[in-house]
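> tool_call: predict_assembly(chains=three)
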Amino acid sequence: MIKIEKSKFSVFIQNLVGDFTVFAPVGEGRQSAFDEVADAESVNTALQNTVQSPKSIFFPQTEVLFTYNDGDVQIPEAADKPFFLWGVRACDARSIMLVDKVFGRAKQRPDDPAFEDPYWKAKLDTAVILTLACNEPASTCFCHWTGDGPFEQAGDLWAVDVGSSYLIESLTEKGKAVLERIENASPAGKTEAAEIDSLRTQAESYLGDLVDLSELKDRMKQMWDDPAWDDIAAKCVNCGACAYACPTCHCFDVQDEGKKGKGKRIRLWDACMFPLFTKEASGHNPRGQAADRVRQRFLHKFSYYWDNYGESLCTGCGRCIYVCPVNLDIRTVVKRFLDIDAAV
Amino acid sequence: MSEFQPKILAILCNWCSYAGADLAGVSRIQYPPNIRVVRIPCSGRVDPLFIMKSLQSGFDGVLVSGCHPGDCHYLSGNYNARRKFAVLKPMLEYVGIEPERIQFSWVSAGEGERFAQVVSKVTEDLKRVGPAKRLVKGVA
Amino acid sequence: MVKMLRDTVRKLFDEKKVDMVIGWGEGTLPLSATPVFIENADEADTLIWDERCSNNLAVYLTKDKRHLVKSGKKIGIVVKGCDSRSLVLYAVENQIKRENLVVIGVTCDGVIDIKKVMKRTEGKEVLDLRIGDKDITVGGRGFETVVAKKEIISDFCLHCAHPDAPVHDLFIGQPRPANEKADVYKIVDDFEKLSADERWNSMVESYSKCVRCYACRNVCPSCYCNECFVDQNDPQWIGKSPEITDTLIFHMGRNMHVAGRCVECGACERACPADIDLLLLNKKIAKEISERFNYEAGLDIDEKPALASYCENEKQDFIMG
């Protein structure tokens, strides 16, 4: 673990900008997001977390898969520089790994590289992710429910903001290679370790009560026809704000845009809340009612993904709670299914 | 360099303006060849989306023409259309689309001459403002 | 006030005048209230009414929730001025039977716009909220700020002419007459003075933030088409990606569809997860409707919406001579 004075932070970013496309939190309020930065000055270091999640770096809202012109098909060239992500929270770093389980290689065909998503992998495999410990979790955070925590180590590098400096530890070879670029960094010692411990204790004290989700997977399925879903759906207005803010929602649609044999095929975010989601060519929609689609969202997060990969597809970042226009709180929904006193 | 030739979508009502265009044709009245005509039952059928979608697809301008007030085959279609256009045109201008790109006129079945004048006017206007850039998909 | 509301609702259930009441309850975040659907007198105590109650509850009577209205149940609904205007609109457009609703008006001085609060706290999370008569105290880790209400209420509310439900069956408190509309269209007038380039660039900048989540559409009481034009895909009207021309056509199309039907509640702007200034375009339409047709939506149950009616001899300055 090394220590970088905050006064040297701009040197650190400058050092990376030549060889990496550097992404970091920028902007304020609901427009805060991970975006490309050219220098340390544009980084917003005061944010608890960005409202827009970093998933769009690896899974853009619109991505051109290929362009076509009279039978001539061109696949867009991959980015020339690898990505470096500064300041990802543990929940988001983990969410990228969760989506990687789907896009990185399909579970059903783990040995077949044809089932890897080349667009996702090209970006993620070379990327270096620096996770910044969360000194001050927000009131909407519930990462401890999903087996995570504000000081969990994730990604390639792990950093802690200790006031006047950042302590950075490498977790992977990729991370180590980046740390080796830093000149004149002082090693961190016992005082720093103690500092981290006290920050960790403080951060964890900000989190609310712990809820055990282990029974949730089966509960939700058993309660498939439960009137509880109607209560939840009654309030939901079926917009896609939660799905688009979510760092793990990864459903997409594929469309062709163009005319007369010339155009592009694009992949774009979809959301289970929309009436077109899973609508079939015949016009039939197995999830025709709003209530069906609301159930899909929660079952995908807490049941189906769990069946496939052994954990929940929610990392407790709390973004959906913040953006929901009717305050339909995912924590309340979960509690309701676990019979913990909570009205939806 | 040759002069810019705007591509114009003319949405004409079946009963008056389309017949007016027809009269212009059989009377051998000359007018610019820049319009592509779509015949609709009534100007009241025009959804504002038709107009925005045309601009997005690369038309430099859209002309909608119907029966004169009081002459609508369906009695009130053009009055309803007029209310829509009264909001649509200022709105498009407000977001920065040149007002010349969206034009409305009333042309009756007997006004072949007038139809030619309207098309000439719209074409000249659009030659002056030049090719559409805003709201055109892929360019903006 | 809240007590009167709860008592009124309890009485409605006791007298069997309603089967359900839609109102606002305590949310899970300090700045949020949440819609509640109560079905018996005991639940009346979950009702609240204050500056956080920003949703337009009329939305729960249409779209996928239409079954509530069709069930023939007597529904009580707590309304601000704007919400009541939506109900009038629904009656005009044959979406509801007025006699099946019990409209409970509350006095409204405007609702909080969370993004304005966040500006005041410089992005710091609000953990504590106290609402006073004229001001609101917000606090969080290591700060506490007192803000005057009028500085953090929604822009739509600042220009509101009918804060207290013009149409209601019961009213909690004393309804005030309509306000004189002061400076309502000033932002529109100012924007119109800019050059076409400036206007276009400003619109592009503003709407490029749109992520097309359709929160604005889905919280809008006037947007209740069975199938929205953006969801039509056979053939498809507009692209689904947040490409600027598609996004602008979505927003302009939506504004055209609610032209003369918009009750100016501002639910769209407060719901936007990308903080887009939706007011600017919305007010332009309102201005045209008001100046040309002298019409305001949702005030008169016997009057057709502006774009569904006409007058034979009206101004047609926008039509080629």
